[in-house]
Amino acid sequence: MTHYSIGDLARLTGLSTRTIRFYSDTGVIPVAGRTAGGFRTYDVDGLARLKLVRTLRELGVDLPTAQRVLAREVSVAEVARTHAEAIDAQMRTLRLRRAVLRVVARNGEVEMVHEFARLSEEERQAILDDFFDEVFGGLEMDPDFVRHMRSVRVELPDDPSPEQLEAWVELANLVRDPDFRASIRRMSVRHEEMRAEGTDMSAPSAEQMEAFRYAMAQAREALDAGVEPKSAEAADIVRRVNERWAGVVGLPVGPELARHLTEFGDPRAERYWSLLATVNGWETPIPDTTAERKWLADAGR
Question: Could you tell me the domains of the chain?
């Protein structure tokens, strides 16, 4: 039978003689015999046990658990599964910390970013639910519209990018802003009034959406061309938009379009959806039509 000295085991495993001696003293590897000089020797089984302990320790398994594996109290597979899950949790925590630190490095906010990043999925959604309770509460709005708004959840990943974390912090602050809540509440009240009048656009038809896209495209062309909102050219653009808009929306032409755009023109409403798209990682970005809306509102007055 082959016997190994501590020096032999050190060369075969890459461990120090001090570590091997410690493992031997604690019973991790049994002594197989002694040399004539009284030095300990180990057999093939001891070498195999030492290599297994070395591997487990390199993977982060603590010594007591490694000893339980050697004693066949638990299997290697069980230990590997448990430690893999623990490492996954640690990695998620580290990635989140990294994202927090990168956001803090950009804007200098520490406690707020850390606080929002640590919220659970339920706590994040509760912030939005509280927002909806205030802006929709007690109003006779289109139930499908309200249901849709409430159904879109905040889905911040376990390992968010700095951009996603920044978007979530901005979104959380936005929906808690009293001025923004008051603005959306006014829009909601107007939706209720329009629903009673039969002109509610909370669930626009395909034709209405096409008219909206046409209006935004006309405004974008005007902006790109440097057309002043009070110019004769702008008046002609507004006339064309009014005709298209009035035909499918049921609103009068002229100042009514400007009033409608002003009532529903808070740019923060679009910012809400843009931030949500970033947080949730939606592939299709939400277009920002703030400038187009303002140009049309100014030109239509």
Answer: 6-74 (1.10.1660.10), 204-301 (no CATH)
